[in-house]
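Schema walk-through. Below, the input block comes first and the output block second. Nothing else is stored per chain. Lengths vary across the set, and this one has 236 residues.
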Amino acid sequence: MVQLHVKRGDESQFLFHTTVDASLEMVIQQVTAIYNGRLKVERICSEVKELADHGITLPPNMQGLAEDQIEELNLKDQWEDKCVPSGGSVFKRDEIGRRNGHAPNDKMKDVLMRTVEEAKALISKKEVAANVCVTMKTVQEALDQLRGAVTIVYPMGLPSHDPISMEFKEREDLSGTQASMQVITEDECQLWWAGKEMQKGKKLQDYIGKNEKTKILIKIQKVRVCFGKFVSFENK
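--- output ---
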């Protein structure tokens, strides 16, 4: 199998196995799926940490408001009594007013935090140094672990507006966020090797030959269409 060391910019992302006979379309599809899947795991891990610290997210119309503002507007969190963590909650105020402050107890918090570390380890960039390849199966395993832990702590589920719930249901809205700048769709993806773009319509062997034991470093970058041309703002 050919081993691809995938980087974005100068930062290693993951190792990936393929064959010299693979089309560039297939390689791009698989690489972007893993790349974006790792980003999803990282986003969920970040939110699960906040869930462990401060409980579920408030409805969008209540986020960022002070208590007196919520009272004045007569707003009510309809999810507060529905989504109580297993074993009861401990109040830990969210200073930015995004979550309701009814955090899981220490035992349930530990379930969430341990799972976050395990999921992050599965898709860690450190796996490159360990010569361990990441696959979509790896990504799915990390997602399943996170989903399982959240279900243990919140067996009734999370509010439909909670970002963790939205991520699991593939309904996340990243528009206008820094996270959206990291995601690379298949149409936006270019792969570069040895200073050359690896063009769609060709096979990997058109660039690296037919040796299945080849190891190469490729760079993934995001391009956008501007005035009918693909424009990249990243270093190759």
